[in-house]
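does this look right to u?? iron/sulfur cluster version
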Amino acid sequence: MFGLKKMTFKGGAHPPEGKEFTEHKPIEIMPSPQQVIIPVQQHIGAPSQVLVQKGDTVKIGDKICEANGFVSLPVHASISGKVTKIGEFQHPLGMKTQAIVIENDGVDTLSDSIQPNENYLNLSPDEMKNRIREAGISGMGGASFPTHVKLSPPKDKPIDTLILNGAECEPYLTADHRLMLEYPDDILKGLQIFQKILNIKRAYIAIENNKPDAIKLVRKKASAYEGISVVGLNVKYPQGAEKQLIYAITKRQVPTGGLPMDVGCLVQNVGTARAVYQAVAENIPLYQRVATITGAGVNETKNILVRIGTLFKDVIEFCGGYKENVSKLIMGGPMMGIAQYTDEVPVIKGTSGILVLDQAATKRNEPLPCISCGRCVDTCPMGLMPTTLAELVDFEHYDQAVILGLMDCIECGTCTFICPSRRNLLQSIRFGKFKVIRQRRKAS
Ligand code: SF4
Ligand code: SF4
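got this back:
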């Protein structure tokens, strides 16, 4: 049905997978921590509005922030207890932002609003989308875009192809792999909800061929549903990036500056599908998630179910603490992850993993001048010229960088990984994108 050799895209690389640390480890439930610090802003879009005050008591799943507009999301309490502070705290995305501190009462009381709804498939598409929004669900692959917005394409952009992304191409991360092995039914029911909302009969579940157990199990389970195909993808980074995934499966190319809906496609992550099922069928908001805690710098690597707002340091302690010679802490994987300067930052909805690297893994000599080998150009999955873009940004020629596709960079890090001169091209390009977005915001 699907020729395996065709299930990929141009460019890309093969970084060491590092998945052996955790791929066979079942998801462990981390007990609720003594305290959570829940950032008000965890999604792309308008910041949410705080609903609680210091001294309020809350239950798990209670709404503590309200969405502020269509492209916004509510936030929910992840433990039961008392709100002890609302203030500025370090955010894992790198800035200080408003957050709500809750002290645990040790009782783990669930909100009264969490009630199963056996007839959820009879809900209308709008009712389903409203539940997804009310549950505060954003893309759980790391993008953190509000899911209900993605499920509301304009009328002139009809969607005919739905792709559930189980590629998990980022090295070291295995949370999605474990979800597919342990909760395939929830994922398929979530996909069924997506199909109903968008009125799409055909859907694909895309999984890299380095997860044969997940492909086998999900394919077997999917045979009970109509119109769902499980597709094995070549193992290549960044196979799970939206545009690369769409090309691999449909051979449609998302235009420069465009979105998947421009070519009739919609991509959702497998973790998002499970969260959507829980929201629509059980009224469970997104107050916890599965994350991979891994790397040579942590004593016990694990896949864990962790409450949003749990500090990284508490997560690491649950995993047996740090080993000696720790040199780097990253939220996410080594290619697209975000380096942290402190472990006093909270798990957020987009935390797919925490990677702790030791000195051996991060040993990287000083960058050398570019030798014009062209390898970064050959491997860029977006067909960009990373070395030229980085130079233009370094010299603050942002307009020219934009003309050459700066904003099309998907920040996959392949260019940095492949560069023999060890140039951190991604860092320059990311900074350039940040400057351009800021300039545009100021001008609007
Ligand atoms: S320029 Fe951007 S898209 Fe291209 S390889 Fe580098 S990080 Fe990836
Ligand atoms: S891979 Fe590195 S050395 Fe080669 S052209 Fe790109 S920036 Fe220059």
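Residues 1-5 have pLDDT under 50 and may be disordered. idk if thats expected tbh
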